[in-house]
Amino acid sequence: MTLQTPWQAIVAGLEEEGIPYVFGLPGGAKHLYDALYDSRAVRPVLVRHETAGAFMAMAYARVSGEIGCCFGCPGPGVANLVPGILEAWSGCVPVLALGVRAATRTYGMGAFQEADHVSVMRPITKWAVTVERPERAGWALRRAVSIATTGQPGPVYLELPADIALEAVEMPEYRKAERWIRPAPDPSRIERAVEFLARAERPLLVCGGGAVLSRAYDAVEQFAESLGIPVQVTPAGRGVMREDHPLFAGLVGLYRTEYPKSVYEEADLLITVGSRMEEFQSGVWHYFPDQARFVQIDIEPSELGRNWVPDLAIQGDARLTLERLTEAALRAGLGPNHARLAELAARRAAALAQVEADADDRVPVRGKRVVRAINRVFGHNTILVKENGAQDLWAYYWPYYQILDRGCVVPPAEQTAMGFGVCGAIGAKLARPDRYVVCTTGDGAFQMGLHELPTAVQERAPVTWVVFDDRALGWPRWTQRTALGGRVIATEFTATFDFVALARAAGCWAERVEQPGELEPALERARRANDAGQPAVVDVQVDSEEHHPGFEEFHRPR
By C-alpha distance, which of 18, 72, 62, 77 is closest to 43? Predict the structure, then answer.
């Protein structure tokens, strides 16, 4: 037992849990940050807006495989965390949000910045709690960490009332939380899945974010190679497999290109692992292979049958389930269909060749050319952090951009909060300072996060932001033109920032690109600036009219 305040106990617990960063900004002088002052293992990252702190914590968690931590002051500070916590909730990413509540002795009397934070956070977290007694701070932290990481991961919220938070008491010794407890699948259901595989001629595995959160990299690759099964991914599942792997077959739903579409539609057995197959991933639930049986694998039982009703549902951790399924299939004598593999290889090679041959030199620069250039210049050892706009959407379309290393992509979740990638890129860089980090963003989303450019400079986090600049909110404008007969309103920027001047003023290297031939040299200079420790911004003037056919197909009336 040691004499500590709850904030000191929380910081000691963060140290024991190996949580190195708290993304946020301080309010009351004595709350959390005074305790952080004495820590050698936990460092505050001073953001310019609390929402950015939650975005950074989420991206840090996705890349590191650990918990991201953010902080909000009472009232508006905690409220500003909500977009980031909502995104983490949607993406099942373990984020610990810390907050301060109005003092217990005045709560309910209209205290300064008084708000019912727990009621705000409860619907978008796995657990939201106020610590009512000072000696319970360590217990609450341990419980929060365990809940955030066990089963289907997700965010948690823990707050301390302002008076209790500063009360020094005899504090029990902190005991580290049990983490990443994962359920194994029912063996009888594994055997039934093997029977499905034995009857299938064109099986397909689709991996969602749960496969990445499970770190099922080796399990996915072994399953695919042992049985000769192509692998597709959702945006959240991207990075579970190298995209130059011969069995990688692109993305699903809104994000599919021609070769992935053909592989998906001809499948006679669809196996999804760790994905809800939500609206964008499923083509508004219309993109289901006509003749396929469906096996759904998910760690969370409430996700089973949420959308499409499976022929076989398996509750289990992605990695453990795929390992068991591979072992059982090999015991049953299943193996690759070499004729099918040769056919897939030929079709895949043709798709790659077609993209390589599509060197579009038109002005304004085409978005597809931008993402190919990023891939060539930055290459391996690069984490791609994405927004979700009409032109930067080209980064989703394989093989225009290929993820060359496992675990090297940070997508927004299904909420697609604008600014997530712009801010989250800093968290990704702090998680893996040994890798390049490139954020692809439209100019609309960039304006929602550009206040964090000085944060990257301050934290010595050399990120490159590539802005697909069409002076518009491209996706809403496209839908206005197509759905409203061209009645375009409030989606075009007639006045905007000079992004190059703004970035340079913040301490970043920056350059504007207007011609296709300027693109790769500018990206090379951005990469060299990163090598020298300087964040970079490349503002590319892009065409706003060209979209992948998959984008237009997705939006057609059904």
Answer: 18
Sort 439 into a burial class: Cβ within 10 Å, 0-12 / 13-18 / 19+: buried
Domain boundaries, the chain: 2-171, 187-349, 359-555
User: pTM for the full model?
Assistant: 0.97
Asked if 144 and 67 touch (Cβ cutoff 8 Å), the reply is no
**In 479-514, which positions are buried (b, 16+ CB within 10 angstroms) versus exposed (e)?**
ebeeeeeeeeeebeeeeeeebbebbeebebbbbbbe
Q: How far apart are CA 264 and CA 270, in angstroms?
A: 8
Q: How far apart are CA 86 and CA 282, in angstroms?
A: 21
CA distance linking residue 303 with residue 155, whole number of Å? 17
For the beta sheet containing 269-273, the strands, ordered from the edge strand earlier in sequence to the opposite edge, are: 248-251, 231-233, 203-207, 269-273, 293-298, 312-315
2-171 under CATH 3.10.320.10, yes or no: no
Three-state secondary structure string covering 265-289: HCCCEEEEECCCCCHHHHCCCCCCC
Chain position carrying tokens 């505050």: 44
Domain 359-555 CATH class label: alpha beta
Buried b (16+ CB within 10 A) or exposed e, 89-124: bbbbbbbbbbbbbbbeeebeeebebbbebbebbeeb
pLDDT in tens, 411-457: 999 999 999 999 999 999 999 999 999 999 999 999 999 999 999 99
Task: Answer yes or no: are the C-beta atoms of 369 and 391 closer than 8 Å.
Answer: no
| Radius of gyration of the chain measured on its C-alpha atoms | 24
- The tokens for 175 are 């005991």
Contact 52, 24 (CB under 8 A): no
Low-confidence ranges of the chain (pLDDT < 70): none
Architecture per CATH, domain 187-349, reads as 3-Layer(aba) Sandwich (3.40)
